[in-house]
Amino acid sequence: MFDYMIVGAGFAGSVMAERLATVYGKRVIIVEKRPHIGGNAYDHYNDDGLLVHKYGPHIFHTNSQDVFDYLSRFTEWRPYQHRVLASVDGQLMPIPINLTTINQYFGLNLTAFQVEEFLQKLAEKRETIRTSEDVIITKVGKELYEKFFRNYTRKQWGLDPSELDSTVIARIPVRSNRDDRYFSDKYQVMPLHGYTRMFERMLDHPNIKVLLNTDYHEVKNIIPYREMIFTGPVDEYFDYCYGKLPYRSLRFRHETHSTERFQAAPVVNFPNEYPYTRCTEFKYLTGQEHPKTSIVYEYPTAEGDPYYPVPRPENAELYRKYEQLAKDTPGVHFVGRLATYKYYNMDQVVAQALTLCTKIIGMRRRELLNMQVEGHA
Ligand SMILES: Cc1cc2nc3c(=O)[nH]c(=O)nc-3n(C[C@H](O)[C@H](O)[C@H](O)COP(=O)(O)OP(=O)(O)OC[C@H]3O[C@@H](n4cnc5c(N)ncnc54)[C@H](O)[C@@H]3O)c2cc1C
After folding, report:
1. pLDDT value of residue 374
2. Shared-domain flag, residues 90 and 102
3. To test ligand 1's pocket by mutation, which of 18, 54, 58 has the most ligand atoms within 8 angstroms of CB?
4. 226 part of a folded domain
């Protein structure tokens, strides 16, 4: 008899398994329908020996000391500050928009002081900030909105920014200096030997069994367990009884090129031309040295694996119904991006899982994190 059946071996499922086994001494079985652990953060060496992220680039960044310290038990890190260029009107310019972007796009030579004034003139006033369009237009005005944001968002979400919640774009800063880092978090690092190696070390515990290539429906009535931790889509768990929650999906086109460098930055965004949104060159992220290089193009789609919960008020409303059902389902805990229908980054999912662990185990976060990693090889 297992104490917990955990559905999904991504960040949510793996953190839960590791803490429940290590701190609580529980016996855990993880059931994962894909042929690998790691969820969407899974990485692997391709046929040419290049480390690639199967489900698109995953950049680790967090302000949480707890999350960083916790994951550091399972991996060493390499410092990595992410940078993105946008291809607009045949030029490559830094994104988020900064002083260099403004000067390059408008053919000017403004100083940091002058650019603030310049942006204030471009920005339009709006009574309320409700949608993503409101957020951008009130920061940079219509022209930059049209060139850098509007079409990218339409491709990414299949919706105009005016139809999307302000939270989708609220996180994108506009800088009056030349800081071209994509993130400003305290910790910006990548797992030195990749994400999958980190997951392997998390799950390497005698109390944790992992069953790959298995949908939990196939085994939930065969394998005995006391409680379930579910990290798949919450609407799927309840057989879509209130209807399907909308998710956005992606198609990935992986390529390897016989050249050491393919493009001028880790990620190049293509807001306006082409059906893909961006192209990533993995060697920037992984630091790997290799005579060839691997890249991936991302094509947003409506159909396919659920990747992004779509942040719109009516979807949040529909999710609230499933959330209530989840609360009323004893013996099943819902955690992770799909199970709580939240547009979470990896660190937020780790934090959410640690919080659920403290509730289940009845310990404070500090005590939970201080427990030694016993049993790990
Ligand atoms: C393209 C892309 C890029 C991203 N980039 C970043 C980034 O740069 N930085 C960042 O911090 N975050 C990024 N994220 C977000 C990050 O992927 C998530 O926050 C994180 O992986 C969520 O972990 P999870 O465990 O909640 O879900 P998942 O990783 O989705 O894991 C859920 C697992 O459950 C399994 N499962 C589902 N249903 C069943 C079933 N019926 N039976 C058995 N198993 C099932 C799935 O196969 C999956 O492996 C990105 C996401 C995407 C899609």
Report:
1. 47
2. yes
3. 58
4. yes
